[in-house]
Amino acid sequence: xxxxxxxxxxxxxxxxxxxxxxxxxxxxxxxxxxxxxxxxxxxxxxxxxxxxxxxxxxxxxxxxxxxxxxxxxxxxxxxxxxxxxxxxxxxxxxxxxxxxxxxxxxxxxxxxxxxxxxxxxxxxxxxxxxxxxxxxxxxxxxxxxxxxxxxxxxxxxxxxxxxxxxxxxxxxxxxxxxxxxxxxxxxxxxxxx
Length: 193
What we know:
Strand content: 25-35%
Low-confidence stretches: 1-32
Distance between the termini: 85 Å
């Protein structure tokens, strides 16, 4: 009789305990940053960037989505006091140069860390290809909407900081910086030998 009573007590305790699946969902929600909506996949990375001329920026990247495969990644350039100078979001599936299609959360974090590294050959805009007078665009470079030859060549001539990062399957977006101004110049595709 004592064993039967202990068996019923164990069953009653098990019935009152939350299911294991709910406990797992609570863990995922508690790892989501404050103020962010819970997601099935979330990762972030950031790095300090000391650009030429004593200019200092923070490069931040985060990705969130129902799954890591469906995540949207955002790259942000801020000043040291947190002022956002540039921000652009991309579905990770469209940036195959930076993100693997079957990444898990751990892999996605590593990919974001790599995404925050400057891919420019040198950290100043003067290394970008010249935009010849009368040409529709510079060689191996697709200017961003609204970027004129004067804007592009002005950034090259200023020899200010430039930050480039993968934005597609073969291209790298390049952002020219000057103090608290940031201009997306467009996408550079490295020359193929």
